[in-house]
Amino acid sequence: MSERTAGPGPETSLLDASPDGAAKNGRATGRIAGRIALMLPRYSTYGGVEQFGYRLAKALAARGHSVDFICARQEAETSPGVRVLAVGRPPGSRFLKLLWYLIRAERAVRRGRYDLTLSLGKTWSQDISRMGGGPLSVFWEKSEQSLPPGWPRFSKSLRRRLSPVNLLSLLVERRQFTESSEVIAVSHLVRQWLLKAHPALKPERVSVVYNRPDLERFTAPSPDERDAARRFLAESHGLSLPEPESGRPDPVFIGTASTNFRLKGLEPLIRAVALLPGNACLLAAGGRDSMRYAALAKKLGLGGRVFFLGRVDDMPGFYRALDVFILPTYYDACSNAVLEALASGCRVISARDNGSAFFLDADSVLDDPGDAAAMAEGLRRAMLQGPPPAFAWPDTVESGLDAFVARLEERLAERLSCRTPGKNP
Fold this sequence. Notes:
This protein is about 35% helix and about 15% strand.
């Protein structure tokens, strides 16, 4: 485990970050450095919340804060200025692993006497919680809609609600979201879910800072560039994609991407494509088990119109090959794919239970991702509309790592000012 020497305390230093990431005197800024703890079971660059935590710790350390990352296990090299405190992970069940982390992380927080603590997952005590997903009860309700009614849905629900680790998670969640809790949600939708599931939470203590993917990697192509992207996609994945033919409508390429096809509504999407004109083709990126969906496409007579790409490493190229991107998800806190597709010049459709649907027009949002007929109608409109206007991130929406760091530093300054002699706590 790699560690750094603890920096000066908040009572002696006003720090700023130099261009190379080293701390320097920054008294003119009036910003006070503090001792901050981040908590998440894995210190890693693999996974959405893990990558966010890794980048956040690095950014805070570069701005002169003393940063400890309290995790169960370390899976990435330590960033400069970050001290990783790995509390261990015992063998056994998920229940035991979660209970162990809760106890050991709580002990580390009490010993650390931090100025500010941020939870990125499930922890017993914290000053601020970041909600990258919805409450557990909401996830169950939404995701179970993707299962067939009857026994499959009932048995899944029963297993979830009787699982020891889920019962512990619900207990921790109730403690995390009380009247005095402060939360930063990843989307307005997550904030709405959270306030509904935990009525004790004060709305004024739940703010929103969106993730902001690197949209500079995703740009709208010219017609020639779109054709080139399709050729490259076909060659790199060994596909024989339809090409324009004289006297016939040009093919229209609809795309979707997911690691969980069931949750992200691929089955109703395939049924929707079967209701579209014959020039509509579907490209499905990702997924762990495409065989049953390929069988459904064949059964519906969609041979030569539905293509399964498996893992796609060049996602900018994938979006550039599309006319329409659709994510008919049953549950998504805030899909980056929707934002990336918008920046790539695609018409985009998604479902209302996706936090990034906030950035779509109302007629591009599906009320029910299981309604294939309504989905087909939305796709038909999008096919006729052509490329959308260039996407620009709204200035009124807080987003990205810088905004999140600014929110933490505001809270840190408030806490430290209460300790300054002559000020009332």
